[in-house]
Specification:
Elements: H1 25-73, E1 77-79, E2 84-86, E3 101-107, E4 112-117, E5 129-134, E6 137-147, E7 154-162, H2 165-238, H3 244-273, E8 283-286, H4 287-304, E9 308-312, E10 318-321, H5 323-340, E11 346-354, E12 357-364, H6 396-406, E13 410-416, E14 420-428
Parallel strand pairs: 9-11
Antiparallel strand pairs: 1-2, 3-4, 3-7, 5-6, 6-7, 8-10, 11-12, 12-14, 13-14
Helix pairs in contact: 1-2, 2-3, 4-5, 5-6
């Protein structure tokens, strides 16, 4: 049963699909650039913090080593009448000193008194922790004062130094690895960001395409009644001879066009409300009673059309939601069956249960739907038969699916061209999951 169809190009009805060519590239590019900036800043900040922590840890370890070495160097100092001297026979520091470390002793006038190990050949200018460069060598140094134990008078300074080539090499290798890792992370995030961008933009692209198609289709649907209204009103205003019969015909055309626009507007408003939650519209619905009510209304219409109509109800069938909307779902399915079933055919409606759902099935022996069109029949304004362009608003099955999903159910269709179709709409029998659409 071919219920909704698309206009051929000759009818002027524009129908497009949301494919990859509809993707809004500027939006995708902006999102991708935003992802890259965020990832780059995040990885760069993380790399900076990790490097700072790593270097600070190495420097703290080096400072501790030098302070321990400098304090060990205090054992070599001897005092004679408030004067500082170095005991050359004290070799206790050699067990603590590494090959790239050294000790130097200075008197209070900062004159060098002696040295041990690898030490910079530079006078003591400033105290504390510093770096001294001698030729191509860079020394890290730490100084501590030498105090007379009894009087706590300062009589000199000991300077511990270290050429930590291994530490600097480790920092260089760490920087290289961190840089390569950051670049690889940014490249990986670029690829992931591109995939995420495309995934994020895809619904936007579909929304853009649907909005564009909806605007074009709604404009087309409204153009005919507006043209009829404008044409008949203009003709009536320009007619110098007032003929009641002619005026009546024109006003009847205007009324029909206005009614068509009213139907279209009401259907569009109904579709727009399908996204709203149901918590304020939750009622117990006796689906069997609704089916029997509609059957009584449609029997004469099917009989006049020469179509056999039958109703089958299987026990109680309960749904929860908006009674008017559930009835509208069944009305649309019956209207489609009526429009697309030829004289001599048959239409049936049946209720039943399927697990925890109430189902209503509408079958017909109508013209059927080609398999390639089954995915399109629930699209808004989509029609298969241009000859039936002005039957309804083209929103019937779109309303069926939107309202069924609003009630927590859905609609499915099976059909064979020339053999008829079967629409099955389902409703949950429990209201707990129907609060949100």
């Amino acid at each position: 049963m071919s219920y909704k169809t698309s206009m051929a190009s000759a009818t002027g009805f524009r129908q497009t699909t949301a494919d990859s060519s509809d993707r809004p590239d500027p939006v995708e590019h902006r999102l991708l650039v935003s992802y890259l900036l965020i990832f780059a800043l995040t990885f760069s900040l993380a790399a900076f913090l990790v490097r700072s922590a790593f270097v600070a840890s190495l420097e703290q370890q080096e400072t501790t080593r030098l302070e321990v070495l400098a304090r060990a160097g205090l054992r070599t100092a001897v005092f004679h009448r408030d004067r500082l001297a170095i005991d050359p026979n004290d070799i206790s520091n050699k067990g603590l000193m590494l090959s790239d470390q050294g000790l130097q002793w200075f008197d209070k006038q900062r004159h060098l008194l002696g040295s041990q190990g690898l030490a910079p050949d530079m006078p003591l200018i400033v105290e504390g922790k510093h770096q001294l460069t001698v030729g191509k060598q860079t020394f890290d140094t730490t100084t501590i004062p030498i105090l007379i134990p009894n009087t706590q008078h300062r009589v000199g300074t000991v300077r511990a130094s270290e050429i930590n080539i291994l530490q600097r090499t480790n920092i260089r290798w760490f920087d290289l690895g961190l840089s390569i890792g950051t670049v690889l992370a940014i490249v990986g995030s670029t690829i992931a960001g591109l995939a995420l961008t495309r995934q994020a933009v895809r619904p936007i692209a579909r929304a853009f395409a649907m909005l564009r198609d909806f605007t074009a289709d709604a404009s087309h649907e409204l153009r005919s009644p507006l043209t009829a209204i404008a044409g008949n009103a203009d003709a009536a205003l320009r007619d110098p001879c007032r003929d009641p019969m002619r005026d009546y015909s024109r006003f009847a055309s205007i009324a029909d066009a206005a009614k068509q626009m009213s139907y279209l507007t009401n259907d569009l408003l109904l579709l727009a409300s399908a996204d709203q939650p149901l918590e304020r519209e939750m009622f117990v619905i006796d689906v069997v009673q609704v089916v029997e009510k509609l059957a009584a209304h449609y029997r004469p219409r099917f009989a006049n059309a020469g179509i056999t109509f039958s109703v089958t109800t299987d026990g109680a069938a309960i749904a929860y939601g908006n009674p008017d909307q559930v009835e509208r779902i069944l009305v649309n399915l019956l209207e489609n069956a009526l429009h697309y079933t030829l004289s001599g055919g048959a239409v049936s409606i049946a209720t039943g249960r399927e697990r925890s759902r109430t189902i209503v099935t509408v079958r017909d022996t109508g013209v059927g739907i080609a398999e390639e069109h089954l995915d399109r029949i629930f699209d808004r304004f989509w029609r298969l038969d241009p000859a039936r362009l002005h039957d309804g608003t083209g929103l019937g099955l779109a309303i069926v699916r939107a309202l069924a999903r609003r009630h927590g159910g859905d609609v499915r269709v099976t059909s064979r061209l020339g053999m008829g179709s079967e629409f099955t709409v389902s409703f949950p029998t429990r209201p707990s999951s129907l609060v949100e659409p």
